[in-house]
Amino acid sequence: MKLKTISFYTDLVNKAIKNNNTLKRQCEIEGVNINTAYKTLSSLRTAYKTNEEEELLKLYETLTNKESKNIKEIETDDKATVSEIRDDSTNEIIAYKFEIYRKNRESIVGTFTADEMQSIYAMYSYYGEGLTQRQVSRLFPEYSLVDFRRILRAFNITKSCSCFAPHMYEKYTEKQLKEMHLRIKENNFLKKAEKDEIKDLKAIIANLAKNKSIDYDKFREIVESSTKTEYKELPVELDNQDNNYPDLIIWLSDLHIGAYNAKYSSFIQLPSYDIKEIKYRLSRIVSSFAGQSYHSIYIVNLGDAVDGYNKETTRGGHELPEILDNKEISEAFIECMMEFFATLTSKVNYDKINYLSIGEANHDGDFGWLNQKLLASYLTKYDVNSYISNKPIDNFIIGKHCWLFMHGKDNLNQSRQFPLTLNPNTELWFNNYIAEKGIKSERIYVVKGDLHNYAYTTGKQFDYISVGSMYGSSNYIVANFGHTKWSINYTVVKQDDILMGTIKGNV
Question: Is the pTM above the cut of 0.70?
Answer without folding.
Answer: no
